[in-house]
Amino acid sequence: MSASRTERLLNLLIALLNTKYGLRRSELREKVYHDTSGNDVSFGRMFERDKNELRQFGFDVETVTDLGWSEDDPATTRYRIGKESNRLPDVQLSPGEWTVLLLASQLWERAALGTAAENALRKLQASNGLADVELPVGVQPRIKPAGQAFDDLVAAMHAQHPVSFTYLAGTTGSEEKRTVEPWGLGSRFGQWYLAGYDRSRQALRHFRLSRLTSAVSVLDTEKYSPPKDFNIREDLDSLPELPLRTAVVDVRTGRLLGLRQRGLPADGKLKGQPDAGYERLQLHFRDAEVLAEELASYGPDAMAVAPDELVAAVRRRLHAAADFCAAPVPAFEFADAPRARAARKRTSEDQLKRMLQLVPFLVHNQGLHIQEVAGRFGITRKELEEDLQILICSGLPGGYPDDLLDIQWEDDHVYITQDLDLKRPVRFTVEEACALLTGLETLNGLPEIAEGGALESVTLKLMAAAGEEGLRAATLAAPEVGPAESAIVEVVRNAIGARAQLHLVYLSPQRDKVSEREVDPLRLYSLDSTWYFEAYCHSAQGLRNFRLDRVQELHPNGKQASTQLAPGEGFPAKLFTPNDDDTTVTVQLTRKGAGLADDYYAERTAELPDGGLAAEIRFGNTAWLPMFVAQHGGAVRILEPAELAESAQQWIEASLARYGG
């Protein structure tokens, strides 16, 4: 969609919205399209494409005919758009409901649903005004989607396109090509699952996203119809949990304290003995792939001995990492500007969607500073001014002053006085309804939120406003976000409220040691069911993030917090706090691993021909980067600095040598 087409579609929309009896094709051709080519066939194709485009944006283009005439006669057929049927109903929210809704929208840390949640909030703000509410301390949960595959599957599912991918079958241990009609995505047992109709098996099947060994290909030329009553949460509730099994692992003496705490000495029934300098442990596990990812990251410090399925999974990851490290380096060039947090490239379609949100937003929020408006929409001032320039040139076919959108921003404060019936936002898309309603359902796992009436009331209001699109939220089920370490959560929350200092005994797997610290806690937040607290660490003399499941001991030390630091700016809290002495590392990511650029806050990226990325990421501690490369098994490698790339390759080679090459 070119910029001129964006403007044309906007003018067509305004014309069809502001006609009571409809406009004939010949009138639209002359007054909106200004088409004098005389080629009726070419114009007819363009007009049909534009009508379909408007329908995709949520506007139903009605066809009106005179009594007794056929729709096939362009001379007697008129077109219009009803002013009510495509608009989001007014939703009035209390401050408490706004607080719950903000929490629900910010669950999606990034990816397509994060953008959809932001769009949905702007639509609600267009009829309610800006909500000035504060998020509660200690209740900032987040959901981490399962990489690029999650985004691709959500898009395919909502557009009802089949997908194909290579899958590591749990029963056979072999990689197989699957073609699936995606019915639902949900989290269960700490893993994301796709439920859908497997065309080769001709039956409903479940696929763990961690077992996908290729990127997801969307078959966008095909369509399917999912069952109307399918509910992914109910479907996944019927899945049995994987049985508890025992793994045997040889661990280097004195290393991997966290792994040792979970293990027991081996019972000696296996033949053979561990090599010198290693000890044999038994570990309980349910999913071989999950444990294999962890063991691969430990490199030569740990070796899987049994069962064979686990050994094969670790070897496969290490071989994939070694092959990727040895592959030729593609040509790429970083842009000079720092990388924005957008998950994908903006298009002209995004611009038109944004402008349809921008007009009602400005109508109900008059006089905002132009920089604040740009910030609300996540764009630059230049991009916003380009939007406004198109808007003020758009309007009814006559082109007279009263026929155009009237927007002023000369004094850097934006006002709109002529809205041409664009003052109400378009109804929610499926993605927007899913993002908010799934987020609200997820908050039921937090007692302090679920016990109030705001969560239930705002859910009912949004279900009513979303209509049919809201019913399709049943295709998505988020993970449980309630903390398992509820006692620790209570200690941290009380300390934050009382501005009290805490004594912390903490296990750091990257440094493989237990340390004691005095910390001033600032806020709590989560990533799926893993909870963290951000604190000022007096040992490190800076902000740090601590995982609650790695806390060995935590209690008030009787002192008041001695720092006046506030929590780190922005939401969500970053897991990695940048410092001046960080090392900038250039990595290459496959398409499957492209989401790591967002997970680790890449500062610059460059797209690669295969759909992957080159990314510049800052790391404070580079010693664990070989573990990082091995863990992701062929999805990431280090390009620069050269010594880090070499140490990662040597780490992987030493790991493979433990398995016989």
Architecture overview:
The chain is an alpha+beta fold and 661 residues long. It contains 21 helices and 25 strands. Strands 4, 5, 6, 7, 8 and 16 form a 6-stranded mixed sheet that branches. A 5-stranded antiparallel sheet has the order 20-19-18-17-21. It has a 4-stranded antiparallel sheet with strand order 10-11-9-12. Strand 5 and strand 6 form a beta hairpin. Helix 4 packs across helix 16 and helix 5 runs parallel beside helix 11. About 1% of the residues have low confidence.
* Cα shape: globular
Uncertain segments are 340-345
End-to-end separation in angstroms reads 52 Å
Please tell me how large the radius of gyration is: 28 Å
Give the count of helical stretches.
21
Write the SSE topology.
Layout: H1 3-17, E1 23-24, H2 25-31, H3 40-56, E2 61-65, E3 77-81, H4 95-105, H5 111-128, H6 147-159, E4 163-168, E5 175-188, E6 191-198, E7 203-208, E8 217-218, H7 232-237, E9 245-252, H8 257-262, E10 264-265, E11 278-285, H9 288-297, E12 302-306, H10 308-326, H11 348-364, E13 368-369, H12 370-376, H13 381-392, E14 406-408, E15 413-418, H14 430-442, H15 447-450, H16 453-466, H17 468-471, E16 476-477, H18 486-498, E17 500-508, E18 513-527, E19 530-537, E20 542-547, E21 551-560, E22 583-589, H19 596-599, E23 604-607, E24 613-619, H20 625-631, E25 636-640, H21 642-658
Parallel strand pairs: 5-16
Antiparallel strand pairs: 1-3, 2-3, 4-5, 4-8, 5-6, 6-7, 9-11, 9-12, 10-11, 13-15, 14-15, 17-18, 17-21, 18-19, 19-20, 22-24, 22-25, 23-24
Helix pairs in contact: 1-11, 4-14, 4-16, 5-11, 5-14, 9-10, 9-20, 10-21, 14-16, 20-21
